Here is the input.
Amino acid sequence: MKSNQPDELSETRLHVWVTGRVQAVGFRVYVAQNAAFSGVTGWVRNVSYDTVEVVAEGGRKQLDGFLLVVKRGPHGSFVQDARIEWEPATGEFVRFEVRRSL
Here is the structure.
């Protein structure tokens, strides 16, 4: 049976919706800074008053570490839930950016 989990060496995409106290606590900047440190590309944006959406591409090991950071959040935040989807990488990003809120 084939898993939807990417293997360790391939480039892949991580799509996460984080809910909780993630607004007005520097969550998007925290995610962007850690993406740069982790070497992943993509974007982060506010979706609603309690949800932040993150799309990141990179190697599986990079993304696993990055995901732990996203789920922890910055000081003052509280991540209640993280809905995670693994998707095929598209290679469309050259950097990680903070996007406008929806």
